[in-house]
């Protein structure tokens, strides 16, 4: 007999039953909260963008030395390839015999996938491909990796589980609840991984004699490879600075796993962490490590904070696009391009005014959702909110519209071609010449014997 049955019979529940019932109810509420809606969607999206930007920066910094680092005849010591291991065939394919000479392909694939993700391609499949490509690139340069790279590989694996689109999804079916639960679990795993990193680092440092004596930073900063000259001079002239830095680092790594979970203490511990890791990045020369450790703090920011950051980063002018309805194939093409643009960043209007330009694009002062009764200019040629100082017609308008599209590979050559035509001053002529040709072809099709029959 459980606590609820005892209450129905008018008998008070036993203490054990009451506590068990309370724990069960709280567990049920926690599971409902975890599965009913996407939690911290803006945080997930902002972290993805910054994380992928860090991965791209890390690879681009190595590109000038690609041959010395990634080539088969480089001096970098690599892990032997195990042909019997499926893991090596997936995540160490760049080391396989016959593939070593194509090291540039792995680097280009990783950079291309990161660029696609940073410009709007947010599927989990792309994240998984980035994970595979990143591990293959890292496998070619293991001696250049540090703790930041190890952490990034783990976070990238968890990020595969996360919905990083930034949409506020509500569960309506059991399948939705499962997807949302997996996405929220990925965020929790990333947070726990960061906490485990600090907890492990604090425990290992506390076992070191130099850390216990407060002299660890003093000796570390004596090494030219891990110290800026002015940092070396400071700890040499004032040893107590190194002692304060040593004990502050220990205290921070021990306090972080606890203080980061409380709203009142979180800003203080994150601020201290940013100061510490920026000092590591620029004072010790470990740039990528310091940046990735600052970057992971985004995972602990409140949703309203990350939403404001995303709104500020995405505050680009909205395009007001007006296309003439009788411009043959142009309305369909423009509508397709507008659908590929980020949400609410393009507003399309089709006008029947024969005096209006075939295609007119203008920039509104701010990115905002248009109202249904927004006034338009006379002739319905262009919305009244468009500033007259920022208008483009013809090829220049098409160029501006394609630039707003997500950078998927099929549209990159189109944008590049339009940019070249515009740069050469041929855009207006080709744009005006194209429509009579299209009209003549369509008229011929309409009056052909096959069409008549």
List keywords for this structure.
mainly alpha; four-stranded mixed sheet; about 450 residues; 21 helices; globular; about 60% helix; 4 strands
Low-confidence stretches: 366-389, 444-448
Average residue pLDDT: 77
Q: Give the H and E element order.
A: HHHHHHHHHHHHHHHHEHEEEHHHH
Largest sheet: 4 strands, mixed
Radius of gyration (CA) equals 29 Å
Strand order of the largest sheet: 2-1-3-4
Put the structure in a nutshell.
With 453 residues, the protein is mainly α. The protein has 21 helices and four strands. Helix content is 60%, strand content 4%.
Detailed description of the structure:
This protein is mainly alpha-helical and 453 residues long. The chain has 3 domains: 3-36; 41-307, no CATH class; 319-449, no CATH class. It is built from 21 helices and 4 strands. It has helices at 3-8, 15-36, 41-62, 66-70, 86-91, 103-118, 124-139, 147-159, 174-206, 209-213, 216-220, 229-237, 239-259, 266-283, 287-295, 303-313, 330-339, 394-404, 412-423, 427-446, 449-452, and strands at 319-324, 346-351, 359-363, 391-393. It has a 4-stranded mixed sheet, with helices on one face. Helix 6 (103-118) packs antiparallel against helix 7 and helix 13 packs across helix 14. The longest helix has 33 residues, at 174-206.
